[in-house]
């Protein structure tokens, strides 16, 4: 079979599997009724998997150059689905389903793909010059939506009928941030653990809002 099969890509594939499940939930796979809350949870799971896939990959010391390049490409391809397509499908399921909303639903995954492709190019060039891990990101990392959008979604009932507009506006601003040239310091382990804590609190808040 073509491809590279080892433990370094397991989390990446789990992230994609969660995202595809989220797309089906948002489209009404379960009971023919859209379940955007389940889809949001899938988005958060994808974010959790993506947070550690690179660290897991780097534990394999004897990776070939082809394996490294494959890892970069497969990670970005999966991220395009997880953090580009899935949020747009969630937006559609919560009410962004008119022709007026279509530009935002297209812009979001488009900007995500542009940023990911740019990252691939710059990362490949960087790895030819140094073996050091990346210390900064350019533009808003696409994985950040795994924390931002669930937080916004948790206030759906509080915002009421205007929520699709709020979600759509957030998607637009995030899409622009994907391709805006500014630098963000790559989070260290302590920061990543803090993100996990924030994500867990968001999950508890989502479940509370769902049952009250």
Brief descriptors of the model:
single chain, 212 residues, mainly alpha, two-stranded antiparallel sheet, globular
What does this protein look like?
The protein has a two-stranded antiparallel ribbon. The chain is an all-alpha fold. The model has no long low-confidence stretch (mean pLDDT 89). The protein contains 8 helices and 2 strands; from the N terminus they run ααααβαααβα.
Compressed to H and E, one letter per element, the order equals HHHHEHHHEH
Radius of gyration: 17 Å
Strand count? 2
The shape is globular
Compute the separation of the termini in Å: 50 Å
Structural class: mainly alpha
* Share of helical residues: over 70%
User: Order of strands across the biggest sheet?
Assistant: 1-2
Task: Describe the protein's topology.
Layout lengths: L9 H18 L8 H23 L6 H29 L8 H28 L6 E3 L6 H9 L2 H4 L3 H16 L4 E3 L3 H23 L1
Structure in a nutshell:
By secondary structure, the chain is mostly helical. The chain has helices spanning 10-27, 36-58, 65-93, 102-129, 145-153, 156-159, 163-178, 189-211; strands at 136-138, 183-185. The relative contact order is 0.14.
